[in-house]
Amino acid sequence: MTEDRKTPLHDEHVALGATLTGFGGWLMPLRYTSDLAEHRAVRSAAGLFDLSHMGEIHLTGPQAGAALDRALVGRASAIGVGRARYSMICAPDGAVLDDLIVYRLADEHFLVVANAGNAVRVSAALIERAEGFDAVVDDRSDATALIAVQGPRAEDVLASLTAPDDVGTVRAMKYYAWASATVTGIEALVARTGYTGEDGFELFVPAERAVELWRALLAAGQDDGLVPAGLSARDSLRLEAGMPLYGHELDETTTPFEAGLGRVVKLDKTADDGAPLPFVGREALEARAHSAPARVLVGLRGEGRRPARAGHDVVRRGLEGGVGAVVGAVTSGLPSPTLGYPVAMAYVTPEVSAPGTELAVDVRGRAEPFVVVDLPFYQRA
Predict the structure, then answer these.
(1) pLDDT of 118
(2) Which residue range or ranges hold the GCVT N-terminal domain (predicted)?
(3) Where do the H-state alpha helices sit in 226-340?
C-alpha cells in the first residue's frame, strides 16, 4: 500500500494540532479545531486552506491553445490572457475524467489545475492528446504550492501583505482572473478563484516558499478572524455553494450534461475553415446533448433534522414515513452550518427533478422528508 504524500505545509499542520486524513493520495488536514468553527469563520471572516495537493500542469508553445481545444471539452484558445475558465477533460465515451480550471498565463502559456487524485492521469492524458501539436506539457505539481484565502475578509488580509505597487491590481481583480503579485516578498500567481462560495484568492508559489507565505497569512489575518481550515469545512462550504466534487457528483459514469454542467461543453468549436473542431468525447457528448437524460443532479433541502449522506437512496414519499420506490441516490449531504437544515445533492430520475417536488431519503430504514430545490443552497450577497 502506497503511503500518502505530504504537502510542503505538513509540519505546519502538525504544529497547529490538525487532525490528518488521507485524501487523493495525500495526507491532509481534516480540521484544526472544529468543523463548525472553521466553516463559520470562512462565511463571516476568512479561512486559510492548504491546496498544495492539487496538480499544476503547464502547456506552452505556439499550439498550446489548440492542443487544449483538442484535449478538453471547452475552448481554451478563447480564454484571454489574465483570465481563467472552468472546464473538464472527458473520456471518448463522454465520461468525466476530471474537472479543471484553466488559466491563460500568456499567448502561448496555459496552466491547468487538476484535482489531487486525478493529477497524474490528467497529465498523462494531456501529453497523449497534445501529440502532433507544437506544444509542451510540463507537470510542475511537485514544485508548486497552492494556498487559498477565502471569505469576506480575504481581500483585506491579502492586501495587507501585498507590495504597494500590486495592491491596486489585487483589489481590482475580477472573479476568475489572475495576476502576478509580490506577497510578503514572494512572487506569486494570485487568482481570484475558490471553492467555498465566498470571495477569495488562490496563491501559487514555489514549494520552498510555502511555509513562509502560510505563516505570514496566518499572522496578518489574526485580527480579521482568519483561521486555518481543513477538508471538512471545505466540503461543507462547497456543498452549500452547490459545487460538485469529483468522486461524488462527477466520475467516470457521469457526463457533464447529467451534472447540469453542459454549458462547459463547447460543441460549437470550429477549425479555421469552419468545420467542427474534433475533441476527445465530442461524438458521445453531441449525442448526449440531444437526448433526454436518464438522471438529473438536483439539490435537496431537508424538512427534518436527520441529514442525508452519500450513497443513501432517494425515494418517493411513502405513507406514515414509510420508504417508497427508489428514484435516485445522494452524492453529497450534511447538516448546513449556515442555513440550519440538512442539504444534499443527488441524482434522480427526470420526472421527480422539478423544484418543489417532495421526496424522501432512506436514512437507516426511515424516510426522511426532503424537497427538490434549485442550486446553489447558499449564495453570498
Answers:
(1) 97
(2) 9-269
(3) 231-240, 282-289
Q: What is the pTM of this model?
A: 0.96
Calpha distance 241→73 (Å, rounded): 23
Specify the length of the chain in residues.
Answer: 381
Pairing state of beta strands 26-31 and 46-50?
unpaired
- According to CATH, the topology of domain 296-373 is Elongation Factor Tu (Ef-tu); domain 3 (2.40.30)
pLDDT, one tens digit per residue, over 115-144 is: 999 999 999 999 999 999 999 999 999 999
Give the whole-angstrom CA distance, residue 369 versus residue 381.
29
Q: What is the pLDDT of residues 170-186, one digit of tens each?
A: 999 999 999 999 999 99
2 band by pLDDT with thresholds 50, 70 and 90:
confident
Q: Which CATH architecture has domain 62-134+253-290?
A: 2-Layer Sandwich (3.30)
The CATH number that domain 5-51+143-240 falls under is 3.30.1360.120
Task: Of 279, 284, 255, give the one whose Cα is nearest residue 268.
Answer: 279
